[in-house]
Amino acid sequence: MIESHELTKYYEEFLAVDSVTLDVPTGTVLALLGPNGAGKTTTVRMLTSILEPSSGWARLAGYDVRTAPEQVRAHVGVLTEQHGLYERMKAVEYLDFFGQAYKIPASKRRQTTLDLMERFGLMFAVDKQLGEYSKGMKQKLALVRAMIHNPPVLLLDEPTSAMDPQSAKLVRDAIIELQRDQRTFLITTHNLSEAQQLADRIAIIRHGRIIANGTFEELAHRFVGDTQIELRVREPLNGLAHDISDLVRVEEVGTDWLRYRVASPQETNPVLLRRILGMGVDVVSLSPLSQTLEDIYLQVVKEDEQQEGKANEHLR
Amino acid sequence: MSTSVNTLEQSTPQVQPQRAQFRQTLSNALIITRREVRDSFRDWRIIAPIVTLTFLFPFLAQFVAGQFAGFVEDFGAEVIGTRTIPFLLMIVGFFPISISLVIALETFVGEKERRSLEPLLSTPLTNTELYIGKTLSAMIPPLISSYGGMAVYLISLVFGELTWRPEPMLIIQIILLTTVQALVMVTGAVVVSSQTTSTRAANLLASFIIIPMALLIQAESVIMFLAPDAESANGIGALWAIIAGMVVVVVLLLRVGNSIFNREELLGRTLDSLNLRGTAAKIWRNVRAVDDAGTPARNLIEWYQRGIWLSLKRQTMAARITIGVFVFALVAGFVVGLLPEWQLGLPGGMDLSTVGENVGVYTEQLLGPNPVSAIAWQNGRILLAATLLAMFSFGTIALVLTPATYVILGYATSQILVAGYNPLILAPAVLTHGIVEIPVIVLATATALRLGAIVTRLPRGMTVGNAWMAAIGDTIKLWLGLIIPGLLLAAAIEAYITPAITSLILGG
After folding, report:
1. Residue B273 contacts A, CB cutoff 8 Å
2. What is the pLDDT of residues A245-270, one digit of tens each?
3. Which of A214, A239, A268 is the last residue of a domain?
4. Which of A84, A195, B106, B308 has its C-alpha lying 20 to 30 A from A230's C-alpha?
């Protein structure tokens, strides 16, 4: 549903997006993560035919962003980085205006507007001027605007920023529901737990390049490596870390705890446990630590920074 | 996953008839217009001046006209008093349309600044639909106020004490002037807005619109008071000329606006910073470039063979237009010279050998001790002025300044013919150095035309800045590589060879 190949964008001489290749099948959520200025917004703007790629191609809902820009925009709902509402308009007028711009028949516009307002809990403010809306309400209304023409593809930039936890959950639930309904999403966000919760696939972009792309499990395996396990004992460790270093890779050590990584916990842990108990150490707990998207993200960025550093050194 | 590619062509199996497409474009543009006009009418800062200027100012103007007419009548200058009446009609019409500039800046750059433009750009509306919609929305409220104000003024004139009535054609002229002035301000504001990211910068740049407009109003006022045909039933001739000129400006500005009001230009520009060193470097790179990618020439031979050729090819269309205009100028000069009222009445039957004998003396007297530099400088400064002025006139000045020579040449030819001489006697004096000079002048004019007109039709994928820098690069390249050497060579021929050949042929 969203495809791009070697999508590149130059602003004059500045390379903003460098050969981005993406493939987001129908009914999937892709989270596009990256630091500020990494090229996320430019990528989204190219995917919505707002900016023309310098090279490469992209198709959304089967339409080429270069040759069929109006068709692309007609099939895509966009939530922009800034909500950009017209503050002197009422919500119904605002959505009616965008309904017209998306060429929705007049007979359908009002009903669609009310249905979406209801769905996002904004019915109470349907006749209020948008200037009176709170930040979160504005964000929700901008999301409603992106969905007014019932698009098969939604590109959402920070969909839950500025929202209270309840509203954010409402939006997340809506995304999950729409995904079940075979909608395709590309979400750019800095909220990594939200991305982990919603995304089927994750792409990390830095300096305009995709530096990691895959499912959470694939990225975790590739970048964070083996499962990390925490061992807690009753007394201080007293050299225990050294005594087990031939079995496992100890990474962190505390007074009465240590963390290690192991390739196959099923085989190694029983051996390790027998050895520790044999040494007379009382084990309090042995538990795997859960991996988060934050760990992966930080690791990916760190590795890329290191590679960049090496490349720069080589150039010098 | 689908791998099929849908394109607009595939999705619209039948090409829409142009008329239906135009209706669709207008209908879509009006979606924008309706919203923005409604929005404008909700803003008291726009409503208050519109109401005041529509309903109060005309009465004030009418009162002032009455008082002034009475005052000047006491001194026997009735004509000044009566001519104040259409002048104030123009002012009543102009004041409200000055608001169009503010609305236009607000609707274009204001929306960009408030970040509400991007959601609009994400809709399927085309760039042209957005442009037309916004242009109309900036014009409609001020024009309603302007026409309303003029109607109130005229009605109050009919029912007032003043007995003088303006000619209907003059009223039509004033209405037309008001409309084209509003269009110039709005279309100019679009151009200004597209080059800035803040209303502050846009307001500053808007002085490029306000100052010429204020000067124009002053000129129109003077014309209304002083024109000998001020009370003609056909209107004032000079005002028709201004209206025609303004229509040309509107067409050019509309073209520029439509060309630069695009998503890429609107969202690709994020900073207003001025980088003179970077700009100079880019222009210099374009001067050295031998291909579209900007690859620099490795040596002078490659620069001539590939770089100059590349820039020459880019001038093809402009050169065709220039040649057409030059031929027209030559023919027009010749035809005008044949009209009895324009003939000089040169003496016939002269012995041309005396002219031939003295050609060298004339040349020396005219050009001084350094004829080559004098001729080259004379031609060069005209072409340079045409190039510089072309940048600020969409290239049109280039097509006004340089063809003047050809009008004179055509006129001179006809005078020689009328006096009974063979016009071919001019050939050695013109064509000897003209073989070099004429192509050089055509090239310089075409380059100037393209430099000015490039913003009216941007090359694909180029921003205004890039297109201009590329055109400046081409201009410098052609001046350095062909125009300056060509002018020097032509001047040398004109100084030393042309007089000799002319003298020989005329029998000196």
Report:
1. no
2. 888 888 889 999 999 888 788 888 99
3. A214
4. A195
